[in-house]
Amino acid sequence: MVGVIKKYRVNYVIVDPIFYDYYTLKDLYTHPETPPPGFQLVFRSDNIDGTKILIYNTTKLIYTDFRTEAVPINDFDNLTGLVTSYGNLSLDTLDWKEGDASIKLESLPSPSQPNQSVAKIFQDIALSDWSKAQSFRLWVKSDSYLRNKIYFQIFDADENWGLYSIIYIDVGHWQNITLPIHSFATHSSTPPNIARIQRIVLGIYETPEPFTVWFDQLSAVFITETSTSGN
Ligand SMILES: [Ca+2]
């Protein structure tokens, strides 16, 4: 799509429900609040039947090259540094997306709600400056329909924290999730300082059925822009 926009100097892209049927274009329809680099939302119409029409200005994309660099935070090829709060954590060397293993987190009954299952792990990291990163990227797989039950938290050195709910719908399949940093919800008096992050948390809220979730390759994604002539 980016190639078409550059070649034909497309200034506007109109997005309707048809985009939902294409895996690589779906996010333009479902996540207009976090468009890819070079796409600027300029019009949105929410229709009475629940569908919507979106228009993006893509002029910047014609004249700019965006280079994406994913810097690994944890390749999840071993369990070093990972601490389990709830659940059973193990290494899975048979089912993974990158490197030679993934981590597998099996739920346990919730301590506060015995009829519910829950799981949570965390990792303390050296103070990291991700303030220039656009997003995090993470592989996720689950054996259950968890929709928005999986969450990712970041804590800074002053324990301010933000949370992102991962939408997981493709039961039994790996999904590569993008977590835009500006889409994290703040759950402290001030937003976490992205230049001084010291803890990350992966967890799953209470659910009625036991579940198993796999995670692989957590990265910080940096996007750099280069101006071009547009030819
Ligand atoms: Ca791995």
Q: CATH superfamily membership of the largest domain, which one?
A: Galactose-binding domain-like
How many β strands by DSSP? 16
Largest sheet: 7 strands, antiparallel
Query: Which ligands accompany this protein?
Result: calcium ion
State the low-pLDDT regions, or none. Answer: none
Number of domains: 2
State the distance separating the first and last CA atoms: 16 Å
Q: What is the count of DSSP helices, taking H or I runs of 4+ residues?
A: 3
* Whole-number mean pLDDT: 93
What is the string of SSEs from the N terminus onward?
Answer: HEHEEHEEEEEEEEEEEEE
Helix content: under 10%
Radius of gyration: 19 Å
CATH C-level class of the largest domain: Mainly Beta
Examine the coordinates and then state which fold CATH places here, giving the name of the CATH topology of the largest domain.
Jelly Rolls
- By CATH, the architecture of the largest domain is named Sandwich
Strand content: over 45%
| Shape assignment | globular
The SS-based structural class is: mainly beta
